[in-house]
Amino acid sequence: MIVNVYGVVKFFKPPYLSKGTDYCSVVTIVDQTHVKLTCLFFSGNYEALPMIYKNGDIVRFHRLKIQVYKKETQGITSSGFASLTFEGTLGAPIIPRTSSKCFNFTAEDHKMVEALRVWASTHISPSSTLVKLCDVQPMQYFDLTCQLLGKAEVDGASFLLKVWDGTRTPFPSWRVLIQDLVLEGDLSHIHRVQNLTIDILVYDNHVQVAKSLKVGSFLRIYSLHTKLQSVNSENLATFLALEFHLHGGTSYGRGIRVLPESNSDVDQLKKVLESVDLPANQCLEGICQSEHEDSFSNISSSGSVSLYEVERCQQLSATILTDHQYLEKTPLCAILKQKAPQQYRIRAKLRSYKPRRLFQSVKLYCPKCHSLQEVPHEGDLDIILQEGATRTPDSKLQNTSLYDSNIWTTKDQGERKVAVHFVKNNGILPLSNDCLILIEGGTLNEICKLSNKFHSVIPVRSGHEDLEVLDLSAPFLIQGKIHHYGCKQCSSLRPIQNLNSLVDKTSWIPSSVAEVLGIVPLQHVFVMTFTLDDGTGVLEAYLMDSEKFFQIPASEVLINDGLQQSMDMIMDMFCPPGVKIDAYPWLECFIKSYNVTSGAEQQSCYQIFDTTVAEDLI
DNA sequence: GTTTAGGATTCG
């Protein structure tokens, strides 16, 4: 059949040249019925395809043909196809984007767009992939709204785009080597804002599009990939740089789209770009970085270098203090002679550190009793869960006002019973990604699979009067891959029915869940010993950090390859392998001394505080 | 009124 249909865009691929004769765009829409429809659009005319800029946009398709492909209903362009697209933001002006010269738009249509906006505002998650450069993380895919400042051919398969959005990346952008004179753009402007520009390499099918872009135009680049790389330079041992890649293909909507000047996001971007305080920015941050700017070596640096900037370069430090900047530096030899407790600002190099393996440095810390314990291994966890699974789910504890229950009996596993209790929100079951489930008798493998589907999982067992949290050797709450643990000494477990006291039963904030269940949550921390050397003496200081020092959450590092890579690169930057200590970077640290008594002997020990990796200078 | 693509991340 041929239909006219309204919907909210849930997914889309911006128009791209197909292998046939036409441009192609794939769009998935959804509406109040929660039914999704994936549509394929073809046209020899780029403008004739729906002008979708982001998920959440509202569309109206006319003369859409409905067909079946692989047992799924799909929409496809039929002759006379036409579309209208509207911004999805509540309250935004209702202005149709279309290439149609004439179309009907009644008061009823107006109401339809508004109704879809209202529905989308609570049912479609706001586009989390739209990220400013200051918020990009290493190893991330995101959509970038930016202005094109320069472009250059690199080779047949890749092309360089230099863009900015007025904010500064947490790590300096890599600089792609290009031949002199191939960079198209206002070179002096690019030089002026170089600390705010990033280099993006686009590959394969995107090269043709990139070539045709006009410098100065506003772009949205979809599914741009970041990667953190350690780079060797002549005057610094190593530093970290963020690479930006637009890989070949169109998976996940990878592509580039030019945004019209009338677009509201472009409007906002322009305001940000105009308010960028160039002279101040350049003076404070430009100099150190320009040392390793290779693609600009052909551009003469104008103006003189102030003393302040020179000093800043000489002081180049891989860590900085987050407080106590007023303190004078103390040489290590002086600290070693003094009695604890004291506080010092020091400047030293990291001669070595322990443990060498990352997973050995992550521990669980109780902020109440200050005890430290190991993160349970997967194998141990499986055993703990299996022990918890020996009791048979008690049918009296199923289907309460708090949850709906279901029981499964496994085959060929001794008739093991698994009970899953789905926690309701005001008597109604939420969508699975908002839903907390309680599971009795599940294996680690089953729990992991369920935690991918559901917001949160709590392993439980049947008690006398209520379900109970398992022994605190097991995580009391599992969210995605993150396991939340509680302190055995400090917690006094309360019944599961206490979850009823949480008003919003869809957000499941770990600290709130812990509180109502009487659990004192443990914190994931890095625990490491740094051997610091400033040439006057050597001192061992320990570091305990949840995410302030490395700016990497210890709770996630063991389950995230990208974070592990970042962590390894930071440590390699502090302590570059195969390099003499002279070439190591300086670390500026704040340390506290304290006394430890063991038997009759008293010893001074040291801990690093209020210090963080200097992202802007490494 | 053919074909293209038919959502589902990477060579770099």
UniProtKB/TrEMBL annotation:
The keyword Nucleus applies. GO terms for biological process: establishment of protein localization to telomere; negative regulation of telomere maintenance via telomerase; positive regulation of DNA strand elongation; positive regulation of telomere maintenance via telomerase; positive regulation of telomeric D-loop disassembly; regulation of double-strand break repair via nonhomologous end joining; telomere assembly; telomere capping. Transmembrane segments: none annotated. The lineage of its organism: Eukaryota, Metazoa, Chordata, Craniata, Vertebrata. Pfam families: POT1, POT1_C_insert, POT1PC. This is Protection of telomeres protein 1. One of its GO terms (cellular component) is shelterin complex. SUPFAM superfamilies: Nucleic acid-binding proteins. Its main location: nucleus. It comes from Monodon monoceros.
